[in-house]
Amino acid sequence: MSRATEAGGASVATALAFDMGASSGRALVGELTRAEDGSSRLAVTELHRFDNVPVQVGKHLHWDILRLLHEIKRGIRKAFHSGYAPTTLGIDTWGVDFGLIDANGELLGNPYHYRDAQTEGLIEEVSALVGREALFRQSGVQFMPFNTIYQLYAMRKAGSPKLDAARTLLLTPDLLVYLLTGVASCEFTMATTTQLYDPAEKDWNAPLMERLGIPRGLFLDPVHPGTRLGPLSPEVAKELDVPAIEAVAVGTHDTESAIAAVPASDGPFAYLVCGTWSLLGTELREPLLGPDTLAQDFSNEGGVGGTYQLLKNIMGLWILQECKREWEERGEGNYGYDELVRLASEAAPLRSLIHPDDDRFYGPSEMTAKIRAYCRETGQPEPTSVGEFVRCILESLALRYRQALDQAETLTGRVFGGLHMVGGGIQNELLCQLTADALGRPVWAGPVEASAIGNLLLQFVAQGRCSDLGEARRISAASFPVRTFEPAGNADWEREYARFCDMNRS
Fold first, then answer.
1. Torsion of CA 185, 190, 196, 202, to 10 degrees
2. Residue 254 annotated as catalytic
């Protein structure tokens, strides 16, 4: 199973993906088999799963980055001890967060978590300094409180000595690759999440950095997905007793790897990457940086193969996850997700709605109280049962997806026949069906493991086993099941969508 084994006329190439989310991470091995007729199939096997638990230290919330490194090492060792022989590895994670490296090449403390409170109020402060329209025109990025720009500005305001001691900023997946290989890099899709990269100039925004007191010298020139970076360091290879396999810069922002795996045809398509966050958008050749895009609160994030993703960040299943955690901590029930979906399906439809992106739902704790307060303030019945809460969340997400898809069509002038949903959230079949009902269009759900699949396929591009993004998507379509959800045609959805839009204009 090696660099490209030959068996029965078919060639097999192997790669190792680490797909890191905000609550857990996984190591998965991918085997790409190319038959004599030229067709290819990808098989994916999960080898290792681990929790990703943030740590509160004093006033700040941090990622436990060294624990994540330890788990990645365990995943590499497991791959070889399980009989696989991957020749490359790739790491994808959430966006915006980073570590700082000093002159000796060492990490300056644990990276801050994007939900840390240090950036509160800084969107308004930075916008007042720079101008909201100018900042969007120079970044194309949705204004989110956790963006890298606000984290760095918060550190400068607090007089953090780390900024003066640092020599290099490495975004989370680049940091983990550096700790494994010693190779410092900055992958393009992650760079565009910072709000400090200017897509029109195709370079870092040095004047903006200077104005905010952010050292320009921290930022490396971006490399594109599919770039081969370098092998495991001799120390890591010896520690793990494995060959020095090569790290590849995949679409290191997990959203971009997931989009690379969308099993769409060559024409324009709309997608929803569904998980803790929901990201709905479409793929473009050039970013849209005008005032209409800003007014609709969309982002332009760098994608794979020279593309840009016009997308909207939506709060996603975070709200449900927090409710579930709350019920468990209060001893009100240890519900599995299947049970929550069953209870929601039994609750009355379209009774209470929330705006998933209301600021109150961003932070953890007391999520059910926040939902009740929103419904009370908007003159709606307050959910009382578990099923009513879950139904409220899922229907509100479905209507938010409808609103974002309508906005994307207005911005691009495109009309989409349906929506491709990928990611772990599509295991919630009720959400998929509610989304089809809200859209009045079909939903094509699959694959579930989209980020890991895209990660692996981009490694095979780097290995020369897959030609480009188009072939990668064809392999994804041929290798993994996609389920179609047709709209039920209930006219109540049109009425409720109008009500939802009246409540939620952004």
1. 80
2. yes
